[in-house]
Each structure stands twice: as C-alpha cells, then as structure tokens.
Amino acid sequence: MKISARFCPGKLLLLLLLFSLLTTAPLLASGQAKQPLYYQKISELTAAIEAEIIAIRRDIHAHPELAFQEHRTAALVADYFQKLGLEVRTGIGGTGVLGVLKGGLPGPVLAMRGDMDALAITEETDLPFASREKVLVGGRETGLMHACGHDIHTALLLGVAAVLSRMKSQVPGTILFVAQPAEEWGDGAQKMLQDGVFRDYKPEAIFAFHVDDTLKAGYAHYVPGYAGANCDTFFLSIKSEGGHGADPDQCVDPIVVGSHVVLALQAMISREIDVHDHTVITVGYFHAGTATNIIPEKAELRATVRSYGDEQRTRLKEKITRTIAGICQSHGAPYELDYQFGTPALYNHPELLAAILPTAALVLGGKDRLIEDRPEMGGEDFSYFAREIPGVMLSLGVVPPHLEKTAVHSPTFIADEKAIGIGIRLMSAILMDYARKPSGQRVSGFKK
Q1: End of a domain among 343, 370, 397?
Q2: pTM of the full predicted structure?
Q3: Which of 53, 107, 301, 432 has the fewest CB atoms within 10 Å, i.e. is most exposed?
Q4: Among the options 50, 70, 115, 117, which is catalytic?
Q5: What's the pLDDT tens digit per position in 268-297?
Q6: Within a domain: 15
Q7: Which residue out of 65, 151, 183, 253 is catalytically annotated?
Q8: Is 117 considered catalytic here?
C-alpha cells in the first residue's frame, strides 16, 4: 500500500485508533456499556437533594388530598418549580401544574408526568408521617391516604426537575414536568389535555413512573404495548311491577332476570370472545329487594368491563348490550342500560420503550434488574397522554427490605424510600439520553 509523503504510518495508526474509539461504545469489564460522563453529575445532584425530596414526599403523604382538591399539593409543586427557575403554569384541568425547563442545547420537547391525588382510605401504618386527614364521603367520615404512591410520583417529578434544572446548560431541548390531578378518578389527564396543557409546547414523548408493590427498590417492571386495560362501566336497572313472593307468576322477578344476566355475561366471555383478547366483566354491584317474601320493583346491577384496544371495547359494548336486551326481552322485563366508556387502555409505545431500556439497564446496574411483565387489567389515565404522544410508564420497585410484598390501595401500604433516589437518577438519565439522540433515532410524531 502506497502512503503519501504527507502521511506517515504513525498518523494512520492514530486515526484508526480515534475512529475505533468513536464508533465502539466503551464497555465495562462485565461487558456492560460504560455510563456517560453526565451520569456522574446526575448521581451527585441526586445525592445532594435526596433528603430534601424525601422530606417533601413525607409532607405530601401526611397531607393527602382527593381528586381535583389537590390545592395544597399543587401550590407546593408550583412553588418548588418557581424556585428552580422553571416557567410555571397552574390551574390546568382544575389543579394541574406545568413546569417548563428550557435546556441550554438544541433538542426535542419531552415530558414527565407525576400524579398528585390520594384515596379515601384510612391509613393503618405506624409511620411517623402517616396521614391523619379526614374527609366526608357519602355522608360518612373516612380517612385520606396516599395508598397508591402518588406522593412518591410527585416527589420523583420534583426531584428530576431539580436535577435537570441544575444541569440546564447540558440539557438538550425542553423538558415539561406535568403534575396531574385526579388519576384515581380516571379523568385528570384528559382534563389537562382539554385545558391545553401542551398548547404551547408539544412533546415528542412522555414518560412516567408507577410504584410497583411486587419488586424491591432497584428493580423495575416494563410492559411493551398494552400495559393496562380499558376501564368501562355499565349501569343496568331491571324493572318490575313487583309482587308477593308466594305468587311469582304474577309479575317479573328482576332478581331472577339479573341473575341470568350475570351468568350470561360470564358465558359470553368463554364462548363469544377470542381467548387471546383478554377480557374481564365483573358485576360488583347487585342490589334488589327489602324482604324475603316480596318481589321487588327493581334490581340494579353495576359492572366494570376491562379489555385492550378501541376495537375490542366497541365490540364488547355491542355484545353486552345485545345479551342484556335478549335476556330482558325474553322475560318481559323493562330495563334501562347506561354503558359508559371510561379510561382507555394504557399503551407503552414499543419503539420508545426499546430506546430507553439500555439507559434503564445502565442506571439500575444490569439487564437483570429490568423485568418484562405481563399486561394488567387495572386502569391508568396516563393512557390519555399516551394516546396523543408516544409514551412509556415504568413500574419502579418500592417493596421495603423487611417485606416480601406490599399492596397499593391498602391501608397498610408502605414504600422503601430508597426508590426515590433511584427513580430520580433513572428518569433524569432517560430524559437526557433520549433528548441527545439524533432526530432520526427518536420516535417520530404523535401516536394516532
């Protein structure tokens, strides 16, 4: 090979070495990719604010608020964002808050969501910051509790905002921090969208955490595609002129008709629904009658219907409506049916998820700490955001070391606060890594 007089073998070797370093990801001894330098800065900043964020989480936990009543929490969030120097909007969709961080480098608009509301559950933990708040629900006094980890979700939102605002010069693009009300009611995200939360800044992707009550801190679950179900409801009233229990032939018995409906719906699932189309119909409310010898004038049934995807929920509505109509008509029973579509199924964008999993493995310390999970039939209104924008929700392990498991929506739910620092580092790295990707390597456009 002839080498130009202007070129020497030493220079060629040096260029080849530089090319190798630029095109090959550095590896640790274990074979895992080496963390970027800014990961160290994220870790240092997280360590510096962790105690403060945990204290804020405890304060929020001690003062829970119901859906669309999160005035204290929203004020706390807005004040914290303002102190970080973020652009702040309040009152979005009721009590929602938006914090806008404009980075020092060119890049995309991304978003992180954290929900703020609590549940009408009386706390039964012995935590020093346990909730003592009370509220009237249906005329009865009950306690209030962050039994689903929304206090942690909000704390994580604040922590990530704090870390990235202190790295502003290194942040590409714009990061939106969305503090959402009313997740438990299933319409807080929808209300924020309707109120123009993304009117001025339209994110390319949105991310969120949910606490995981089956994993220890340091582990996370992920689900590609559908991760949560459509949460639909129907209200059925079966009517009768009523009568004496000794003369059942003289009237329609709405209890018998309602019983046929319950059984027919279960048979419908096993015989009319594809076994691959995961479906649950639970009649959780069946009220009728006042005495053993009286056929009542009405039976009321209420049910939840869980499925995945718009096509399946539409098909189920048709089948359920037809089944109920057929049974009631065959018994000569007048009826009223109110069928309502609720929170749509949560969809984790597979390409977006695949793009962030290497980051998660790096931060958590290995692929073994990331566990692919099965879709659940529970609902999550982050799905409204993920229908408009490619989105991913990761489940962050929070089971305390001394427990095998803990249970959300339980009065005894507790969480390992070590997960807070882990979650801050993880989401900060996800947002930084994804924002630094060239546009051709990011998921393009809004998911329709």
Answers
A1: 343
A2: 0.90
A3: 107
A4: 117
A5: 999 999 988 999 999 999 999 999 999 999
A6: no
A7: 183
A8: yes
